[in-house]
Structures are given as C-alpha cells and as structure tokens.
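Chapter review: from sequence to fold.
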Amino acid sequence: MLDLALIKPIIQSALEEDIGRGDITGEATISPSSYGRAKIIAEEEGILAGIEVAKEVFRLVSSGGVKFSCELKDKAILTKGKSILILETDTLSILEGERVALNFLSRLSGIATLTKKYVDLASPFGVKIFDTRKTTPNLRLLEKYAVRIGGGFNHRFALDSGILIKDNHIEICGGVKRAVEKARQKVSSFLKIEVEVGNLSEARETIEAGIDAIMLDNMKVEEIKEAVKLIREKSKEILIEASGGVTLENVTDIASTGIDLVSVGRLTHSVKSLDMSLQVIRI
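The token string follows.
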C-alpha cells in the first residue's frame, strides 16, 4: 500500500510545476461556479497502478471537495475504452489536476504493465523479477510501488538498504577479497553482502571471499550457465542474480539458467507510459 503522507509532497510539487501561478486559460474561459463530472479512460490494454495517487491529485486541487465513483483498484486489467475513475468537483479543479493525474497514472500503469510481462516470462522457472535504482529522481517510491503492483519485487530502495559491492568499489579497494573484508569489518554480521561480477574469474574470486549473493552482470546466457554451475559446486546457499541487458526477448533464456532472480533496469528507466485520457462531462 501507498502511504499518502509520504507521496503528498511529491504530488504537491508536481502540481506546482504544472499549474505555475495559475491556469490562465481555464480562469479566462470558465466560471468559478461551474461544476462538472469527468471520467478517466484507458486508451490501451495494461495493468492499472496509481489510482490513489490520481485521487489525491484532485483532492489537493479541489477547494470544494471531490466525489469519486466507479473507480477501479490497482492491479485491475485495463482494456481500451474502459473507464478507470469518475469524479465530480468544480470544473476548474478538474482541468488543473488533469495532466498531473494522467501523468502519474500513465507512467505507473506503464511500469506495472511491463513488469507483469517480465514476471509472466520468468515465473515458470521460479525466478523473481526485481527492479533497480534506475528510477526517475524523486519518484522512486511510486515507481517501485508500481513494480510491486505488476508482480515484481524491489531491490535496494537506497544506498542504505544493503551491501552491494560493485566494480568501482572493487577497483578502489584493490580487489574483491579486500572489498569484502573491509565490508565485513564495518557492518553488522546480520547484513548480507552481494558482489557484482562480470566474468567467471571474478565469480571464482568472489566465492572464495565468502559472500551471500552474487550478481552476474552483463553476462551472456552461456556464461551465466557456467557461472551458475561453478557457484553451485561451491555452495547451494549463495543467491544468484542476473542483471544487465535483460529484455523481454531474452529474459526467458536467462531465467532458465538456474539463477534465483533477475533485476531489470528497463522496468523504470525505459518504460512506455500507458495511454490514458480524461473527458469532462458538464452537469
């Protein structure tokens, strides 16, 4: 579930950006006393995410209150022409909130829809789909929520969420072993340590360093298979993650290699927003 107290500042910032000093077109053409009804419509198939965000947008812009009806819930399957939400409030507030509400709904639903496609392809192999930190600045909370709506899982929310030793850490420390040793000295023994590797040689070194999880980064399918075999010969407990260059076209092959999870940056950094529209109905 979304915590509205946490997302309210995000929505307020988006409204300030979009409205500026005021809707001069609306104020010049529409009476302040005008009252109306509007419906948000899906213009293509997908998975709905962000309905509470859209509702909060209209609550914030409407000075006289807003009524909602015929609303779908997040995770609902959308078809072209399907009504998502009907709202009633003063017409000017509908127009002020229209674009921000649609922007949030479209993007979050696009993320949920794409995530569901990856999940459906990977789940037959018992492999989970995770997101990354490649999110839109200041929208991570919402975008990672949309991933969960699509059936995916969240990787680290921030740098304080876990130990993930990447190539730059290894370079600075002078090797995997040294990086892992330094991490072990400074963090709680309850924290798991994951190391990113790009080839079999690095995988061997990482296993010997005694870690909890290995990320196989940008490795070809055959390389992933060899790495999985190597890791499993040493340990059945090490969590194996594949990442980098994962697409809808290759995720099935990657998931079939024996890994535990796949992290996909495309879920949030290259997603196509779902097409939606808002229609005002005068009362």
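Two observations follow directly from the output. Residues 48 and 76 are 5 Å apart (CA to CA). The longest strand covers residues 35-42.
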